[in-house]
Amino acid sequence: MTGTDSGGAGGAGRGTDGNERTFAALPPAQGRAFAQTWWGRAWLKALEDTALDLGQLKKGRKQARDGAVGAVSVRPGRITAVVRDRDGTAHRSDVLLQQLSTEEWDRFLDMVVERAGHIAALLDRDMPPHLVEEAASAGVELLPGIGDLEPECACDAWDLCLHTAALCYQVARLLDEDPFVLLLMRGRGERQLLDELQVRSARAARTRRGEDAGEGSGSGHEAADGAAGIRADEAFAARDILPPLPPPPPVPQEPGLPPSLDTEAAPPPGIDADALEFLAADAAGRALRLLVDALSAGHERQPLDRELTPGQDAVRLAASCGDPLIAVRLAEGTGRQRAELDLAVEAWRHGGAAALAVLEEEWQPEPEALARAKADLAGAWEDGERPQVRAGVAGRWTVVGADVQLRYGRDGRWWPYRKVRGRWGAAGPSAADPASALAGVGAGA
User: Residue 237 belongs to what H/E stretch?
Assistant: First the structure.
């Protein structure tokens, strides 16, 4: 039986009972993404991860956006449409997707029946992530992965071509409106699925009523509300027979590549695609560093990084990126001159947020700390070799006759500074005592 939807994606298949559905050609998709839902984007990710020729993928996206894909037929294991080239040449294009086996459908339907929320979500044309995750835990992969989409086209391309790519992009719009389209591709139509769910739900309800009537409350393994349970001592006794957890996967050597935002459609006003790509790459790098730290020995004793202010994070970004254009934008966004940002970046590279605070903040240390520092400084050199320092405000001591300075930080450490072109800038890492900090920049050597 074949049902035809004439209302486009907005009426995707409602009232169609057969195992084949045909959707009228959709209008051009200028100025909008092909997929808005997470499962529609997962479909496109499977397509883009499979493609060997990104040029064909880009051309197919342009064809779909221009409305070159005709009516789309969806049936178990296959989607079909006629795609026209710019010169009007028509090509029949098919994309194949493996159907679920009978056993996989049984596991999926039993899993859905166990939770009324799953049925409600499907009826509402929604596919929540936990439904897909629980299906995968039961060994049922609903969404396609790398290599699962198999293209066939009358243009005789041996791999994904622009016609099959255009078809997949168009199908993403259909999936957005109705996840039953995906389930049909996997082998079961909407009406068949709903009928089977109704039968299984009724059977499960009868089973529960029978258990409640037959067992009562005297088994010792059932709570007062009828929910099955197990004694705590029995669960504890079974701890040694449970299989061990699998080893964690190996840590990647480098962060993954961020998604490409190079699309035919211009981004919405106020959205900077280049900035988003840069921030995505930075987030991936930070996530990898956090993972490495979390898996390292003794990580539980390491202090947690404090949250950075926007100004501190801008300096961190500038320190991790060598692109001068990004540095200019970060300087403008934080109200700094470019030279000021360069000084901040240099300080950050010597000691992160603590070093940046020494550069930009003024504070008055406790007199006791300064007195100890003077004593340390006096005892570090022989008489006549000791550099002369002039104490200034905010714990800043300048070496007389040299463009060298010491600064006392809130972390209780001394930071060496050097004046270059009239500006004081961080000259090295910190030290616990002022003499070591001065020796680090060669002062009084």
Answer: helix 232-237
CA atoms within 13 A on the CB side of 106: 3
DSSP symbols for 68-90: -B--EEEETTEEEEEEE-TTS-E
Work out the end-to-end distance of the chain between its first and last CA atoms, rounded to an integer number of angstroms.
Answer: 92
CA distance 3 to 17: 7
Give the global pTM.
0.47
Q: How far is 101 from 186, CA to CA, in rounded Å?
A: 9
Residue 391 is predicted with a pLDDT of 79
- Which two structure tokens, joined as six digits, stand for 396? 């800043």
Nearest to 109 by CA among 182, 198, 207, 19: 198
Contact (CB, 8 A) for 163 and 169: no
- CA–CA dist 328, 92 (Å, integer): 51
3-state secondary structure 294-308: HHCCCHHHCCCCCCC
Instruction: Give dist(CA 137, CA 37) in Å, integer.
Output: 22
- For the beta sheet containing 389-391, the strands, ordered from the edge strand earlier in sequence to the opposite edge, are 389-391, 396-399, 404-408, 414-420, 423-426
Collapse the DSSP code of 418 into the 3-class scheme (helix H, G, I; strand E, B; otherwise coil) and give the result: strand
Give the mean pLDDT of 327-342.
86
Q: What is the pLDDT of residues 240-255, one digit of tens each?
A: 656 677 787 888 888 8
Q: How far apart are CA 261 and CA 168, in angstroms?
A: 18
User: Which class for 185: exposed (0-12), middle (13-18), buried (19 or more C-beta within 10 A)?
Assistant: buried
Q: What residues contact residue 249 under an 8 Å CB cut-off, 6+ apart? A: none
Question: For residues 77-99, b (16+ Cβ closer than 10 Å) or e, as one string?
Answer: bbbbbbbbeeeeeebebbbbbeb
Residue 137 pLDDT level (bands cut at 50, 70, 90): confident
3-state SS assignment for residue 258 = coil
